[in-house]
From TrEMBL:
Residues 476-590 form the DALR anticodon binding domain. This is Arginine--tRNA ligase. PANTHER family: ARGININE--TRNA LIGASE, CYTOPLASMIC, ARGINYL-TRNA SYNTHETASE. It catalyses: tRNA(Arg) + L-arginine + ATP = L-arginyl-tRNA(Arg) + AMP + diphosphate. The keyword ATP-binding applies. Belongs to the class-I aminoacyl-tRNA synthetase family. HAMAP family: Arg_tRNA_synth (MF_00123). Residues 5-85 form the Arginyl tRNA synthetase N-terminal domain. Monomer. It is found in: Cytoplasm. SUPFAM superfamilies: Anticodon-binding domain of a subclass of class I aminoacyl-tRNA synthetases, Arginyl-tRNA synthetase (ArgRS), N-terminal 'additional' domain, Nucleotidylyl transferase. One of its GO terms (molecular function) is arginine-tRNA ligase activity.
Length: 590
């Protein structure tokens, strides 16, 4: 039981003894800095139940807690009861927590809930870009956090490896590639394929212009451009399993997968399973038939199948074309059903997808619910905002996208430049320097993106992300390295806890450390890595303030010194755990 849970129980016991009533819950907060106290009971929600003025209710509860030795003092400010706890409460199980490298982490067991998180899901016609970076970092971090809350997590993605956009890259490579390969070109395979996606668009635009100049309407020209018609033909050939087209498709997709693997490795993300749309696109037609039989769907005169969701505040939605081919939602229906069928232990599924797909997921979840799948209420859409740049939007087909690999290299070079300017790398080998630059760069990138609430848009500034001061990854990493330097000078040893009387800064740090497990649970429930990022930043600020104003190695007493070394160790462990949940590594030296 952590401190907050403990004081909550004390308050509930006090209410029971004073009023002979037991409220369903009480609201406990950290006491604000301008008031004396450690924890605060918000009295207002209790007024109706306990019948009295908030000041009187607070005073009666405070008197009981002091008289029974649960708190040392209290004060009531309007409807808030601020309570002070003694040092012994803060120091209970102190050394055990301080040395526990997994403090606050709940390790899942075979009996734990199974949760699936789907993220990344790129197209195989281009490399990963900045938008994919946010998606992957969110998906991986959410997976880490949900697991740390005690759940078994399955990390998954569906690769969009079929469709007209894939054929565009294939047609362009056939026409203009002259047999070029990633090896002959000296570039990653996903970059090579993306190059030909851009090449297709260049020729497509030129052909549209030529047709328009010849008198054709622009909309018609877009449909009749020869290179576009060839891409459509190739898609039909792929669907008919034409051997030559399948061979080309497999070869170019193979190049892309090799490129993706390198990017994923550098980003530090991974998956437990990978599905391919070329396999899943056939799913869902049986679900449509089931829905027709149940009267959930209806068929129009042209043979297309729809669902009417206007009574639910949505629109009518096509679920099967008149020619019997599926649309995206058909596949998503089939894939969801397949996942719960193939993984009987699965209790929850979260899709990490940008907010431009909000409507799609509302429709998907509602249809599954109308079809009678009980697990439909366990589906979640982690809807995140787009990533903006100082120079505007990204467009893959025009080649103006911010490539993920280029972005990581840019941040690496910035981290290297700033680290060299600071001049604290004496004794490092070149390999050690390179490893440090990489750790700082990836920490900067990940923290800058994950510290923002997923629902909000981000204006990404690579230079700002690598700042060693303020709310940044390198600032937090540096605090961890500072503590490791301190602990290398002297390790904590056994001491007499009973002699320690905590000052306010020490209490605040322990109080924050005690809140780590609850923060993980809240971040898991809300699918928000930003809560972990904000938590660890607050912890780091508290520790740095404490360190600047309180001597550790030169403390006035040996017991105080060892207590503060243990406290520093606990902070370091919690920083490391917090950053690990964000997918960020920590350097031992900086």
């Amino acid at each position: 039981m952590n401190l907050k849970q403990q004081i909550t129980q004390y308050v509930l016991d006090a209410i029971q003894n004073v009023y002979q009533l037991t409220p369903e819950s009480v609201e406990i907060q950290f006491t604000r800095k301008e008031f004396e106290g450690d924890y605060t009971l918000v009295v207002f929600p209790l007024i109706r139940t306990l019948k009295g003025k908030p000041e009187d209710i607070g005073a009666k509860i405070g008197d009981y807690l002091v008289e029974n030795g649960k708190i040392t003092a209290y004060n009531v400010v309007k409807g808030f009861l601020n309570m002070s706890m003694n040092s012994a409460e803060f120091l209970a199980d102190f050394t055990q927590n301080a040395l526990n490298e997994n403090y606050g982490i709940n390790v899942p067991t075979a009996e734990s809930r199974s949760v699936m998180v789907e993220y990344s899901s790129p197209n195989t016609n281009k490399p990963l870009h900045l938008g994919h970076v946010r998606n992957n970092l969110l998906g991986y971090s959410v997976s880490q956090i949900v697991e740390a809350a005690g759940n078994n997590v399955i990390k998954t993605q569906i690769i969009n490896d079929r469709g007209i956009h894939i054929c565009k890259s294939m047609i362009a490579w056939e026409r203009f590639g002259n047999g070029e390969t990633p090896t002959s070109a000296g570039i990653k395979g996903d970059h090579l394929v993306g190059k030909y996606y851009v090449e297709f668009d260049k020729h497509y635009r030129a052909e549209i212009k030529e047709l328009v100049d010849g008198g054709m309407a622009e909309d018609e020209a877009k449909k009749q451009a020869p290179i576009f018609l060839d891409a459509q033909t190739m898609l039909r050939q792929w669907e008919a399993n034409d051997p030559a087209v399948i061979e080309l498709w497999q070869k170019m997709n193979g190049w892309v997968y090799d490129g993706f693997a390198q990017t994923y490795k550098r980003l530090g993300v991974a998956f437990d399973e990978v599905l391919y749309e070329s396999n899943t696109y056939i799913l869902g037609k049986d679900i449509v038939e089931e829905g027709l039989n149940k009267g959930v769907f209806y068929k129009r005169e042209d043979g297309s199948v729809w669902i009417d969701l206007t009574a639910d505040g949505l629109d009518e939605k096509l679920v099967l074309r008149s020619d019997g081919t599926s649309v995206y939602i058909t596949q998503d229906l089939g894939t969801a059903v397949e996942r719960f069928k193939n993984t009987p232990s699965l209790e929850e599924l979260t899709y990490v997808v940008g907010n431009e797909q909000d409507y799609h997921f509302k429709v998907l979840f509602l249809i599954l619910k109308k079809l009678g799948y009980e697990w439909a209420d366990a589906l979640h859409h982690l809807s995140y905002g787009m990533v903006d740049l100082p120079n505007g939007k990204m467009k893959s087909r025009e080649g103006t996208v911010v490539d993920a690999d280029d972005l990581m290299s840019e941040i690496y070079n910035t981290a290297k430049e700033i680290s060299e300017e600071l001049g604290k790398l004496d004794g490092y080998t070149e390999e050690e320097k390179a490893a440090l630059y990489e750790k700082i760069a990836m920490g900067a990138l990940k923290y800058y993106i994950l510290k923002v609430d997923p629902k909000k848009r981000i204006l990404f500034d690579p230079q700002e992300s690598v700042d060693f001061n303020g709310n940044t990854g390198p600032f937090i990493q540096y605090t961890y390295a500072r503590i490791q330097s301190l602990l290398r000078k002297e390790a904590p040893q056994e001491f007499d806890l009973s002699t320690i009387e905590l000052n306010q800064a020490e209490k605040e740090i322990i109080r924050t450390l005690n809140d780590f497990e609850d923060t993980i649970k809240k971040a898991s429930d809300e699918l928000s890595p930003a809560l972990i990022a904000n938590y660890v930043y607050e912890l780091v600020k508290q520790f740095n303030s404490f360190y600047q104003n309180n001597s550790v190695l030169k403390a006035e007493e040996e017991n105080v010194k060892y207590f503060r070394l243990y406290l520093s160790q606990w902070v370091a462990n919690t920083i490391q755990s917090s950053l690990r949940l964000l997918g960020i590594g920590v350097p031992e030296r900086m």
